[in-house]
Design a protein that fits this description.
The protein is an alpha/beta fold. It has three domains: 151 residues, NAD(P)-binding Rossmann-like Domain (Rossmann fold), CATH 3.40.50.720; 90 residues; 112 residues, Orthogonal Bundle (Rna Polymerase Sigma Factor, Chain: A). The chain has 17 helices and twelve strands. The longest helix is centred in the middle third of the chain and has 18 residues. It is globular, with a radius of gyration of 20 Å. Bound molecules: magnesium ion. The site of magnesium ion has 4 residues, from helix 8.
Length: 389
């Protein structure tokens, strides 16, 4: 039987964040393998969302920005496609149960409630929204375990770790080796980074991604968020996660087992591989990426990260060690700081300073319920606003 036939009656997905970088690549995978799409959601790009909705003959769309609801509705007036908006719309899709897999590729803390809603509906999740696990790791993982819901990571590092664990006993894993590209400012010191422009920070050497994550990669906040994400996804203590810089982004992460054997997952830096693995798991079908040629690379280099220069990375590790709402706080402060940096209102180094300051500004707060997390998130955003008023 050909690959397409195996899948034809197998999978239907719903996808939120469909017009972003991960979203459009997810639809490339669906197009290639004939995967059905039940519903789509986007923040504001009505034109692309309309085109996607028509191409995949979806049942529903959600435009998150409520001011664009009228536009979206009129665009699809000649179809039977249901048009939703706002957080209610995202959660409506998450709860619908008219899919086998809920793919969450929105950016930021906004992804948490739809994730929790899908878990409550008992739906497996392919997760690209790392803030979901950073802000609500404890709640998300315990809810998922309670409902028997599986979370398939889309982030390339976590997909790598997940792949390394296949066929191995989880409890025999000794350590996670989380790789980092080092970002565009690898080797630089603070004094070199004082006048970094938005354009320089957006110029990533290996990966092509959305703006928020590209800035997070330049500050190494992204690796800090991934450190926290790895802790929750795989239940590994912070002391047993080592960050290693691989400048070429070929080793996507590795796992060291009790016998000191290390299994790593490699490939060219292209998100199609982790996206496809999360959606088609456990199948490995043809994928539209270049094969990896070791001899083209010649050398792979490894280094330790610079925790002195990159405040965000150090702060994230400190936040997960402290526990409670600290990871949620550093995430929220970073989200707001990145927005201000992209608007050219604060400097590049201000992002790290703000994230680091937030750790001393707040006492211990719980993160056991959605209300706890929402409160910490709100307080952290207010803290950041006051900092730069
Ligand atoms: Mg990543």
């Amino acid at each position: 039987m050909c690959e397409r036939n195996v899948l034809r009656n197998m999978k239907t997905i719903s996808l939120i964040g469909s017009t972003g970088s991960i979203g459009t690549q997810t639809l490339d995978v669906c197009r290639k393998h004939g995967i059905k799409v039940n519903a789509l959601a986007a923040n504001s790009n009505t034109a692309l969302l309309e085109a996607q909705a028509r191409e995949f003959s979806v049942n529903a769309v959600c435009i998150f920005d409520k001011t664009r609801y009228g536009d979206m509705k009129s665009r699809l007036a000649d179809t039977d496609i249901k048009v939703l908006s706002g957080m209610d719309g995202l959660c409506n899709i998450a709860a619908s149960g008219e899919h086998d897999l809920f793919v969450n590729s929105v950016v930021g803390m906004v992804g948490l409630l739809p994730t929790l809603t899908a878990i409550n509906a008992g739906t497996d999740i392919a997760l690209a929204n790392k803030e979901t696990l950073v802000a609500g790791g404890q709640l998300v993982m315990s809810s998922a375990a309670g409902k028997g819901v599986r979370i398939f990571p889309i982030d390339s590092e976590h997909s790598a770790i997940f792949q390394c664990l296949q066929g191995n006993k989880h409890e025999q894993m000794k350590k996670i080796i989380l790789t980092a590209s080092g970002g565009p400012f690898f080797g630089k010191k603070k004094k070199d980074l004082e006048n970094v422009t938005v354009e320089q920070a957006l110029d990533h050497p290996n990966w092509s991604m959305g703006n928020k994550i590209t800035i997070d990669s330049a500050t190494l906040m992204n690796k800090g968020l991934e450190f926290i994400e790895a802790h929750w996804l795989f239940g590994v203590a912070p002391e047993n996660i080592e960050i290693v810089v691989n400048r070429e982004s070929v080793l996507h992460s590795a796992v060291e087992f009790n016998d000191n054997s290390v299994i790593g997952q490699m490939g060219v830096p292209d998100m199609k591989i982790p996206i496809q693995y999360a959606i088609l798991y456990p199948e490995r079908f043809e994928c539209d990426v270049k094969p990896l040629s070791f001899t083209d690379y010649g050398t792979l280099t490894f280094a330790k990260p610079d925790y002195e220069t990159f405040d965000c990375l150090r702060s994230c590790i400190e936040a997960i060690k402290r526990g409670g709402a600290y990871p949620c706080i550093v995430n929220a402060v970073n989200e707001e700081a990145v927005r201000l940096f992209l608007e050219k209102k604060i400097s590049f180094l201000d992002i790290g300073r703000a994230v680091s300051d937030s750790l001393s500004a707040f006492g211990h707060m719980p993160a056991d319920s959605y209300e706890d997390i929402e409160k910490a998130d709100r307080m952290a955003r207010e803290f950041l606003k006051k900092l730069f008023e």
